[in-house]
Amino acid sequence: MISIKTNLKNTNWLKYIIEQFKNINLTNFEIEVIDIEEKEKFPNVIFYTDTYKQNSLNIFNSNEVLPNGKIEYLGKDLYVLENTNTQDNNFELNYDIFWNAFVFLSRYEEFLSEKDGKNIYSYSLNHSRVDKYSFDIPIVNILFNELEDFLKSNFSDLDFGKSQKPVIDLSHDVDYINKTIQLRLKQTVFNCFNTIKSITQPKKFFKNLTKTLKFAFSNPSYWCFDYWQNLEKKCNKTSTFYIYVKNGSKNFKSWLIDPSYDIKTNIKLQNKLKELHKDGFQIGLHGSYESAKDFNRLKEEKEILEQTLGIKITKTRQHWLNYFETITPSFHENLFKFDSTLAWNDKIGFRSGCANLYKPYDFKNDKAYDHQVIPQIIMDSNVYDYTDDEEIFQKAKNMIKMSKEVSKTTHISISWHQRVCNSDYNWHLFYEEILNGI
């Protein structure tokens, strides 16, 4: 049992991060947060202030310093926000472990950016943090492990639970079941961009040019459900298929970005999804692009999918990972139990710094939401479309390995689009390699 005594005026965020720590690191003891003047209930006491208290155990409080885009490394895989540590060596823990864990897990940097009118749109490139490599590190887990070690070294009677079997949540976003004009346009433009970028590297340029022309004029089958079903059942695995629901009017942007199939009228697709569900696979909603900021649209899409397939939908992932910090999570709170939207479009990595299920933070009401986030750390396009790094495949495998090593309760998601096991992509081979290694 531990009492944390602090002079914080608002302790809601501190209580939130401690609850996430307890769930993720499996504490079998209580932790209370009280005012510095209150009488503690428990014999193990920690002071969390910016002033060192003699003859006590102290963790430095940086007074909720606002993130400025810069971080400081305290070790190879341990970093904190700039100006959240102290030169006072009297502190038993001289950096603000609680505030840093909160900022990274709640994605407070994104919240502040959105308040300033600069939406991230799920691209790390748009994030205010300068060091993008920092997203390769499950920093919250590392901070939580540092906290666990700190507590164990000072209070030998504390009981922590044993490690659980890691969960790798396999998933497939169903964007296209045939090659539409919209997809042909989008992917060809993207491929042309990558081709132009490589013009100074002749070998790579001609490879990209060939790829661009091939995609623009080819027409392979995009019905790949059977491949995933057979592959995963062979490995005693099942996955989640996130399904789009055509609903409401569209502007040009949503016409271009959203999928085109209609689950309400596509009997072949309905039957296949019912078969998959009966075979132990899960079905989630792949919310349309505009639904990330339109509650009624998202609610109707969920209801249509449930009524069409006759099953309950509890999981979601927004199309294009479209997400608005001050809007979207409140929708998910009312409609779903699990959300797997929080990932990067342009890179592999830990957007929330976490390799676990966790409850996101409700900034409006200063408390945890009830629904849980399944962090997606790798998507097929991350490794094939957005990088020239020849080591990206090994880095992706290392990221899964790291997820298992840093947490007792690992629960992460990887996503391969349903259509990509054909001659247009051939992205499925690396998925097979991952599947055989988990």
Number of separate strands: 16
Structural class, by secondary structure, is alpha/beta
Main sheet properties? 5 strands, parallel
Low-confidence runs (pLDDT<50, min 5 residues)? none
* Beta-strand content estimate: 5-15%
CATH C-level of the largest domain: Alpha Beta
Number of helices: 14
Helix percentage range: 25-40%
Order of helices and strands: EHEEEEEHHHEHHHEHHEHEHEEEEEHHEH
3D architecture notes:
By secondary structure, the chain is an alpha/beta fold. It folds into 2 domains: 153 residues, no CATH class; 232 residues, TIM Barrel (Alpha-Beta Barrel). It is 37% helix and 14% strand. It has 14 helices and 16 strands. The strands form 5 sheets. It has a 5-stranded parallel β-sheet with strand order 9-8-7-16-15. Helix 1 crosses helix 2 and helix 2 runs antiparallel to helix 4. It starts with a strand and ends with a helix. The model has no long low-confidence stretch (mean pLDDT 95).
